[in-house]
């Protein structure tokens, strides 16, 4: 069986059951003037992973393997936005409010869009998710089942919130999960380090972590 060099031990990869999930690489989280910046975050920490995320996407596309993109966003009428979520964060600029790139985290608005460098190709799955985890209130589970996917490689942001939450959801559903370390990031380096440690603790209790180059090397032989 093929393996990817990983921590805490090699990831036993099955290329015909493998997919990439790119979590929330959106303008509102990565560009100046977006929601992430409005909360006082250094968005340059997010944009610096774009080249590695792009390499990973291209590697999966070249290997003919599925690439799935997620976007955290809500309906224009806010019917899927719990008040408890809206009331957190920056009190002067909340989800649904008008921001520099349209209404913040609302489906169809410019700021909600995926960064142009990482834009989905025609036919690639895009999951609009109202929560932190990509399985909550979405069709992701059905999509993966239809495609026969049982192993997931994760990239995107932020490591400790939407990425880790989705990995935990996937782990509970029986998927084998691998996090691409250079293709994920947090606004807080200590949070990323802690999330990686938690994911691979106790014998990959949530999943594995690996370097992008090692993942791409495996894809080259898929």
Question: Short description, anyone?
Answer:
Residues 19-207 form the Isochorismatase-like domain. One of its GO terms (molecular function) is hydrolase activity. The chain is of the alpha/beta class and 222 residues long.
The general outline is globular
In the CATH scheme, what's the topology name? Rossmann fold
Beta fraction: 15-25%
CATH class: Alpha Beta
- The string of secondary-structure elements, in order, is EEEHHHHEHEEEHEHEHEH
pLDDT averaged residue by residue = 96
Task: Tell me the strand order in the biggest sheet.
Answer: 7-4-3-8-9-10
Largest sheet: 6 strands, parallel
What is the correct CATH architecture? 3-Layer(aba) Sandwich
Structure annotation, total helices: 9
| Distance between the ends | 12 Å
Structural class: alpha/beta
CA-based gyration radius = 17 Å
Q: Portion of residues in helices?
A: 25-40%
Give the number of DSSP strands: 10
In CATH, the homologous superfamily goes by the name Isochorismatase-like
Which stretches of 5+ consecutive residues score pLDDT under 50? none
In terms of quaternary structure, the protein is single chain
Note the topology.
Layout: E1 3-4, E2 11-12, E3 18-23, H1 27-30, H2 35-38, H3 44-47, H4 50-63, E4 67-72, H5 83-86, E5 98-99, E6 102-103, E7 125-129, H6 140-147, E8 151-157, H7 159-172, E9 176-185, H8 189-204, E10 208-210, H9 212-219
Parallel strand pairs: 3-4, 3-8, 4-7, 8-9, 9-10
Antiparallel strand pairs: 1-2, 5-6
Helix pairs in contact: 4-9, 7-8
Protein name: Cysteine hydrolase
Keywords: Hydrolase
GO molecular function: hydrolase activity
